[in-house]
């Protein structure tokens, strides 16, 4: 059986209901791919093309006619042509009068033209009902049947009836139409496919900035300082030791930054005594990219785990262990087991393992396929309660790792503390403020505010 056959059967509706012919202008990649899917969905398709010669590329059940002839056969015409060629439609304005024109076009740059392509099309053919749709679906996904990631089709237009006709086709293709309103929304819809990871920009820039900062910080403390004062060359630390210091530091700071906007929002709401007042823009944007911040944090935590696994096979570590054994043998002295150190070491490892396990669990539950299968309360429980537990475990892992090193003067080179000590600042602030916020005298009014109660109505908009 063809690998797409199940897909095709799912898309093919009851063909006993005769469907209206759909016309597609343009026999390029997108026109052909869309035409093929529309035929599978039970619609007759006619192509309008500059070249009416038969071609093996064109779906065999479709007719290929001139633009004028094809347009006369259908009430709905999909314009699968680049915007810069739209002026060929002007002479066809009379034939296109009253027809539904579907603009599927994209641009090369955000806001490339003063008006959206769909609005430009509406100006060129004023008698037609223009609808914007399908621009976020790719020809490749249509052809290969891999539409899972992009099932949503944004639709907008000024004519409700025309929009409804287009949405019916979208549904018949097994896709989900999302009505975005009037044609004014077209520019925004055209910008969607051109945006480069919009929610990831802040987390990635922040982690790059922090990585650069902590890299130079560790370089100064762990390589330049011993070189200057002890004439020791630890430059090879750049490869594993320093990355293995930066990764946990970033994982912990970024995880804390996932929860910091929540506590800031709570403080703002308590201060204002209402939830009906917008947060500052920076806080809104920060809250929107918490999931991405958490996933970047998880990536750093995973790298830390991998770097830690190779520690026993490192040449430097093996040399240090064997020279300790040799020195004990030469001095005829055996160092007794330090039970306190053994406890500390096992505890910080156990905290790290548990923290990482919950971290992975948080990452998994943020996947849409998993979060779609839990209800809102379950999702909040995992992301909030388990999230805070992860933060507590990871902070405790770092605190126990530090142990009595916090008090040792040798931990401060050029007055600079170890990087992991700096990484504790944000999580400790978040955890302390969160702890204060769960006191009933603050938690009760906050809960009431979040349920709609207002202490200072003058703050509400
Ligand atoms: P394409 O392969 O370059 O095809 C465009 C078609 O436009 C040509 O095959 C041609 O069809 C027609 N054409 C070219 N010059 C013309 C002219 N001067 N006058 C009239 N017709 C002309 O482009 P495409 O990839 O199919 O994209 C078509 C539209 O779909 C674009 O607006 C694009 O932004 C949009 N889109 C594409 C994708 C995708 O994945 N490719 C995804 C979403 C949206 P005839 O030879 O039959 O006349």
Automatic annotation (TrEMBL):
The chain crosses the membrane at residues 204-229, 249-271, 292-313, 347-365, 386-407, 419-442. It is found in: Endosome membrane. Its main location: membrane. PANTHER family: DUDULIN-RELATED (PTHR14239), METALLOREDUCTASE STEAP4 (PTHR14239:SF5). GO terms for cellular component: endosome membrane; plasma membrane. Residues 249-394 form the Ferric oxidoreductase domain. It catalyses: 2 Cu(+) + NADP(+) + H(+) = 2 Cu(2+) + NADPH; 2 Fe(2+) + NADP(+) + H(+) = 2 Fe(3+) + NADPH. One of its GO terms (molecular function) is ferric-chelate reductase (NADPH) activity. Belongs to the STEAP family. This is STEA4 Metalloreductase. Coiled coil: none annotated. The keyword Transport applies. Keywords: Copper, Endosome, FAD, Flavoprotein, Ion transport, Iron, Iron transport, Membrane, Metal-binding, Oxidoreductase, Transmembrane, Transmembrane helix, Transport. It is a multi-pass membrane protein. Its cofactor is FAD; heme b. Pfam families: F420_oxidored (PF03807), Ferric_reduct (PF01794). Signal peptide: none annotated. The keyword Membrane applies. Residues 21-107 form the Pyrroline-5-carboxylate reductase catalytic N-terminal domain. It comes from Oceanites oceanicus. It comes from the Eukaryota. The gene is Steap4. GO terms for biological process: copper ion import; iron ion transport.
